[in-house]
Structures are given as structure tokens and as C-alpha cells.
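Morning run. Coffee first, then this:
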Amino acid sequence: MGLKKPGSENTTIYNIPNLLSSYRILAFPIILWFALTGKQDLFAIFLVVNLLTDVADGFIARKFNLESDFGAKLDSWADNFTYILAFTGVYVFKLEEFLPNIVSFLVWMSLLFSALFFSVIKFGRFPSLHLYSWKIGGYIQGAFFIVLFSYDFITPFYYLMITWGILSALEHLSIQLMIPEMRSNVKGLYWILRDDK
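And here it is:
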């Protein structure tokens, strides 16, 4: 399924999950261009493809035991680019629907970016924790954006996404405050507290 990095028995570099993450990174400027030039249909199609490949790469990595520190970092970069695309799409195409809920959206965005920037300041790199809450939140967010760009803004679904997103971002920040160095594929706060005992 994947080729091993020369000189390493445990670090798989060339595999399907990493190729899917790489695709999301390489597709970023094209999808961003679709947004900035007002091509909503193309933007929506390719954003949905990005979101689906995000689900697929995680599933394949876990199913076939292809998880690695490199893959976690690559996936985190791809996730960050996908967030930028989603937020750009909201601003360009869906701002009117978001305006009544803009305060909660800005709170979530602030916490999300705080988690990213705090990691850069403290650890010198973007986070790659991949908490369970963060992963589930990503699935909820992905489903919300798919529905948003292919159908409409659904208020209860929005508040589910925002509530979960805020709570997972707070867990993310709490763990970063507790750990001395960045880790990959951490399950959550419970496991950090249990392992520190």
C-alpha cells in the first residue's frame, strides 16, 4: 500500500492518505481562484471533493495502519488550507446568511486560529494533535459546508457545528498549555491527564 522511507522501518511516506493530503494542498490555489473569481459552482464542487478526501485519508490511514508523524503534519497543513477555503467561500458567497450569526462564527474562528498560532509560538510549528473531538468536529464542519454550498444555511446544524467547534478548540488550547512539546495523534484531554498520572 505504501513505500517505506529509506532507512526507516516505521515511517511510511508514499501512501494513499499522504497522496490525498498532498492533493488538498496542491488544489488549494485553484479552489481559492474559483472563489476569488466568483465561480461558485466550481468552488463548491472542488471544496466538497477536498472535504471528502479529508475523510478518506483519515479512514484509510487508520484502517491500513498508515498513520505517521509525517502524515499527521501533512494532513494538518491540508486541513488548514481547507479551513481557509471554507472561510473564503463563506465571505465571498454566503456572507448574507452568516450575518445574523456572525458573533458566534467570529468566536469560533478566533479560537480556531488561536489554537494554530499558539502552537507556532510555543512549539515552532502548526499543531498535529488530531484530537478525537477535533476529528469529529471536522466531520461536522465538512458536512455543514457541503450542505451550505450545495443546498442552504440550516440554523440548527450551524449551531451544532459552532458549539462543537468551540469546545474542541478549547480542548486543543488546554492540551497545548499542558504538554511540553508538540505531539501527533493525541486522542484528547482525558488521555493526556491519564498518562500524566
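DSSP finds eight helices and two strands in the chain. Good start to the day.
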